[in-house]
Each structure stands twice: as C-alpha cells, then as structure tokens.
Specification:
With 164 residues, the protein is mainly alpha-helical. A two-stranded antiparallel sheet has the order 1-2. It is globular. The two termini are 28 Å apart.
Length: 164
C-alpha cells in the first residue's frame, strides 16, 4: 500500500516487503549462475514489475484499510486475532477477511509474516544478535519456523543472508 520507494538521506529505500524479497531472489539467482538462472531472473523480474504495478488509488481503499495497515506496521510484533483487529477497526471480521487480500494481494497472516521478515532483515544486517534471538524478537515461535519462513520469502537462509 503506498509508494514502493522512499528517498532517505540521499538514497532510495525499498519499503514494500514483496518488492524487497523479489529483488533478493534475483540477486540469489545471479549468485547461483547456472543454465536456468536467466529464465528465473526473467520470470522474477516480470513478477517484480507486476508487484510494483499493484499500487491502488487511495479513493478505492476503505478508510479502515489504512488504519489496519498502520496498526500492523506499528505493532508488528503483536499477536492479533481477527476479532481483536475487527474490534479495533470497528468492522466485522468477515469484512477484513474479504477485502484484505483484494488490496494487499496476500492473506493477513502472510502480510504479518512479511513485515516480521522485513524487520528481521534489518536486525540481521545491523546487529550481532544470533538468528535464534532475532527469531524470538520478531515473534516467531522458534528458530526453525523463522528459518523456513525467511527462506520462503527471500530464497536464502538467514545465516547466508547475513554473509552477503
């Protein structure tokens, strides 16, 4: 939701987790460099372009959707239930379930995982915390769950990402 890039301190910062993860997959394919890499890079680049085109006009989005976006991004480490979110936004849980995927192009659970993985990327880059500590800080149930989720979104294991 919103622009894909922000200009901060003389450089562009990618703020959409989906875009960030697709770029990381392209970089991984460059480092793999086998006979199928060009095909994977082309397909992922097309998916990246499609993802960047999914920004929708604010007039089409319900007001509660912006509130939900802010709530999820501000309190990303919280464990919300659908009922909690619906009560907070004063909408029915079915309304969230129905409209969230239409505007965010993923389920609510996937979106929360993307936010948490996005936060973990910063911790992997800028801290000396262990992968297990990062997993718990980002509210994953354990190291294994974090590693599986990180790899599914980025194509890399957390320890390999840290070494890039």
């Amino acid at each position: 939701m919103g622009p894909e890039l922000n200009y901060v301190s003389g450089s562009f910062v990618i703020i959409n987790p989906d875009v960030k993860f697709l770029i990381m997959r392209i970089l991984k394919e460059y480092s793999t460099d086998d006979a199928l890499s060009p095909l994977s890079i082309e397909a992922t680049t097309l998916k990246l372009l499609d993802e960047c085109s999914k920004v929708f006009p604010a007039s089409q989005a319900p007001a509660w959707l912006k509130q939900l976006y802010e709530l999820l991004n501000d309190q990303w480490a919280e464990n919300f239930s659908l009922s909690d979110l619906a009560d907070n936004l004063q909408v029915h849980p079915v309304t969230i379930s129905r409209y969230f995927p239409l505007h965010f192009h993923c389920t609510l659970g996937e979106y929360i995982r993307k936010i948490r993985i996005n936060r973990s990327i910063s911790l992997l880059r800028h801290s000396k915390m262990s992968v297990t500590e990062i997993a718990y800080r980002c509210n994953f149930s354990d190291h294994s769950h974090f590693t599986r989720t990180f790899k599914s979104f980025t194509g890399l294991l957390p320890r390999n990402f840290r070494n890039i």
